Amino acid sequence: MQPTIFGIPNCATMKRARDWLDSHQIEYRFHDYRKDGVPKQALEGWVKELGWEALLNRNGTTFRKLPDSDKTGLNAGKALVLMCAQPSLIRRPVLDIGPRRVVGFAPQLYATLF
Known about the structure:
Strand content: 5-15%
CATH architecture: 3-Layer(aba) Sandwich
CATH superfamily: Glutaredoxin
Radius of gyration: 14 Å
CATH class: Alpha Beta
Structural class: alpha+beta
């Protein structure tokens, strides 16, 4: 199975992850959160597998711009609704290698996966 990397093209972390994959001649499919969204069913699976806390990007501009009412009382259900409505709230990249998904980029982690 060809890996899929989910994210947005202008993110610095995404650029590093894609550069790493390219430099190691690993073919992958790129899925743009902003253009293509993320299917709710896929996001629900990610939340079950990885946890909503690992997926929700609380450091980004999108999260900071949320009303306080959206930021308080966060739980899996509320985070899922927010991430479905605004995919840029999903931490990136999410790398899907078939039997497993990983969030974020670290060269050492990618080296162990491929």
